[in-house]
Amino acid sequence: MIWTLKLITLAFLLLLGGQYNTFALQDVTADLFGPGNFGTVAAFGDFNSDKQTDIFTIKEQSDLVIFLADSKPPYFKPKVQAKNILGKDITSVVPGDYDGDSQMDVLLTAKNGPKTEVFIFWGHNQTLGTALIVIYLQIAVTPEVQFYVVFKFFGCFITLASLRTEVCSKALSLTGNMRTPHSNAFIDLDRDFTAGNKASQQPCVQSEFVALRCNVLCMFLADGDGYQDHLLPACLDTSCQRSTIYLAKSGSRDSKWIPVLSDFKRKETIWGFVPDNLSQPPALHLGDYNLDGFPDALVVLQNKSGSGQQAFLLENVPCNSETCHSVGRMFHIHWDQSDLGAIKNAVRATFFDIYEDGILDMLVQSKAEGKQDLRIHALKNNFEADAYFVKVMVLSGLCSNDCPEGPFGVNQPGPYVMYTTVDSNGYLKNASAGQLSQSAYFSLQLPYTVLGLGRSANFLDHLFVGIPRQPGETEIRNKEWTAIIPNSQLIVMPFPHDTPRSWSAKLYLTPSNSVLLTAIALIGVCVFILVIIGILHWQEKKADDREKRQEAHRFHFDAM
Q: C or N terminus of the chain, fewer CB within 10 Å?
């Protein structure tokens, strides 16, 4: 009985403790990669169509290695290895379905003097086939993949037909030269569920500063309006001693760059962005770390008093400064993350759902002494809070149940996800995100979106999913789902593309820790009640036996 009471007490304490946020990380590198945790993580994608995210890496500068997700340790195994696949160094990897056969192909780029060569290797039954040399670019950049077997090279749409031949047509009217390094994204800015459809109509943001080093990212800073805003990590001097992150809101012609983080000083030490080069400008990798509905960021900063580099978590918090009052949000640096601080000479850090449970973990890459390849570190997010999420993956939808390799196709860039619901206080809450909107400069975007719901356990009232439409079409391609269960994963199959009412979705539930703790408490209460019943039954039986013995020894006068 004592142990039962202890178990119930422990369960309720754990359930109560779940109300408070815990930012704890656990190194699980050995469980994921074993001894093979070296290489440059270049991209994510579902190569074998098992709805598990695989990892594309570059080793020895010229080898392509694809780690496929597995259910047994190590959970990522190097199943596809292509040694010296191009005969030269690989500069970027962009997986996607480029020929419309619902199997994932792989696009690689490589330098050829001042030009960049682009190769596409056709996927076939989890292998890589022959390559197509698409185009030569005059500047060293990575292409942005787009939907419907179409991808873009700075205003030039390359359409790959069934014969796997390319046709180039002009897509954007550019009045000036593209800067190097550059930034672009294929994403919906006006909530018409069509990525890039009205990009030319978006107003320019007024600039009142000169940034010598910068890289633009599009994201939603979760201020409640559901629009994608612009983030700009910038250096105001050549050595990045003065680093700042600016934000500009979309949908307004008088938008200005508002600083949301400018204090990079820790005690007496000044930190800042790593001075960029042509292959890796300053960048933020975004994800909702604590599922509060406000996307956070991972960034690598350099100690300006020394030479060390370290990855830091930037938490999205309410603004407490006059400079960011107009946008209402700002970033706060977690200086005391010991697990991230233990990784020296960090080069790149990004979010990744390691265990496919809807909680974003971390992958950090660092320079390894005596090795050419980067070392990969995997950190599990042991975040515990009464918070909820919804995870959405939109597939290509180029076929239905007759797909050549697994049903419903592979994940594709361009889809847009948005939800509206009512929080626990009765206020309307909006959030949105684009899937695979960028691929340049190792942006490492995930082939799905994880939208935090905070502590609202209510059903999602409305969840909208849209995909880009063909040029010239006017009808929006989107569909609405209602009453979506929190802590669930929704896999959307938009087949056929032009008939949204025929689209289907599969819903997978991910029970939270609160369910387990509640079950433990319930079982403990049941055991406690059974013990009480057993004790009372035993006492009653003893009383009956005592009464029978007394009755047997009682002297009966009637017998005399």
A: C
Asked if 239 and 269 count as a contact pair (C-beta separation under 8 A), the reply is: no
Tokens read off for 408: 């419903």
3-state secondary structure of 28: coil
Tell me the pTM: 0.80
145-179 in b/e form (b: 16+ CB < 10 A) is bbbbbbbbbbeebbebeeeeebeeeebeeeeeeee
- Spans of all domains in the chain: 24-36+215-385, 40-184, 388-509
By DSSP bridging, strand 488-493 and strand 388-394 are: parallel
Q: Is the pLDDT of residue 189 over 90?
A: no
Residue 210 corresponds to which amino acid?
A: V
Q: Which of 517, 467, 519, 457 is nearest to 488 (CA)?
A: 457
Helix axes 2-17, 513-553, angle to 10 degrees: 160
**Digit-coded pLDDT (tens) for 142-171:** 344 333 334 444 444 444 544 455 555 555
Nearest-10 Cα torsion for 155, 159, 160, 166:
-70
Taking a C-beta distance cutoff of 8 angstroms, is the pair 381, 360 a contact?
A: yes
